Amino acid sequence: MAYRQIIENYIHPLIIYVLIGTLISYLLCRVLIRLGLFRDAKWRSVVYSIPFIIPFASYFFRQSFFLSQCFVFGDKPDVVSSWVCVGGNVLATILTPLFIASVVFAVTRAGLSIFAARNFAKRYGFVTKSENVRVYSILEMLCEKADMDIPKLVITKSVFARAFTMGYRSPVIVLSEGLINALDDEELETVIAHELGHIYRGDSLSNWIVVFLRDLMFFTPLIFFIYRDYSSEKEKASDDFAIKLTNKPMAFAEALIKVWKMSRGSIMDELVPFPNFVSHAGILDQRVERLVNGDFCLINDRLLGPVAFSVLVIISTVTLYILC
């Protein structure tokens, strides 16, 4: 197939779907959250994953109906669709080489993240209870309370405070000696409980998928704001899990501040799914504030969440189809 045909038949509609789909779904997410329809951080993190999924799901579902022209089921486009079509053709022509490069980059980065996680565990090895009674005893106690299998544990020699979770089928919690030595038992308990929250919801896999889709959609700056909100709610959801498990919000707030002061970025931040227990300063402020104010674990959107989520997906998809 000729290069121009690839642009017109595939890249052009995909770029249109990404640009419009992310904008529509993100605005709807913000509106519905502001209206209070999603009060649980777990559901808000799910909601903020919608802008990553809607454009691609809608595109692949409808791709069989697209021809090289900007028509939907053979009907002539209106004024809005005409402008969208023209703009999409221009953007597709300019961005196609970069889009192809982003696909290669996203695939390479995804492969490197898997390799890095495996190499990390192989390099340091897994800790047994006899090797670190203090940490392993806390881990065992928390897993029993949460009714979870005990994940593998890796302790690095770093003097900086680091804690993250990696692995999909066989999750691993990674802690640094700097973090372990800096925290008392209650603070360490809350940090480990937070990481167990990521494992409980399978955040490593979901975040790996979201990062892959984010890299594919590099050409819309909005996607990085969406990812920021998504990551923020993921961390808050794990914070809520930790407080529910330990009932020690003040110890957890102290741990957040201590770890932030002792943290340092590294290349691992770009490779592993959840690079560190603390995020950037803005998100850290929000997390500490909600812990101090007691704004955690207040709501369980068991009924309202799925209903509002379904409405959000339907409205985003229908609006996207109307415009495109």
Descriptive report:
It is a single chain. Helices cover 68% and strands 4% of the residues. The protein has a 3-stranded mixed beta sheet with strand order 1-3-2, sandwiched between helices. The protein is mainly α. Strand 2 (163-166) and strand 3 form a beta hairpin. The radius of gyration is 22 Å and the shape is globular. The longest helix is centred in the first third of the chain and has 46 residues, at 79-124. It has one domain (3-323).
Please describe the topology of this protein.
Layout lengths: L2 H32 L6 H7 L2 H13 L16 H46 L8 H14 L5 E5 L6 E4 L5 E5 H6 L2 H16 L2 H14 L5 H25 L2 H14 L18 H13 L10 H20 L1
Helix pairs in contact: 1-3, 1-4, 1-12, 2-9, 3-12, 4-8, 5-7, 7-9, 7-10, 8-9, 10-11
Q: State the major sheet.
A: 3 strands, mixed
Instruction: Tell me the strand order in the biggest sheet.
Output: 1-3-2
- Indicate the overall shape: globular
List the secondary-structure elements in sequence, H or E: HHHHHEEEHHHHHHH
Count the beta strands: 3
Estimate nothing, just give the exact number of structural domains. 1
What's the N-to-C terminus distance? 24 Å
Count the DSSP helices: 12
Poorly predicted runs = 66-76
- Radius of gyration computed on alpha carbons: 22 Å
Helicity, as a percent range = 55-70%
Mean pLDDT: 79
Which structural category do the helix and sheet elements fall into? Answer: mainly alpha
Strand content: under 5%
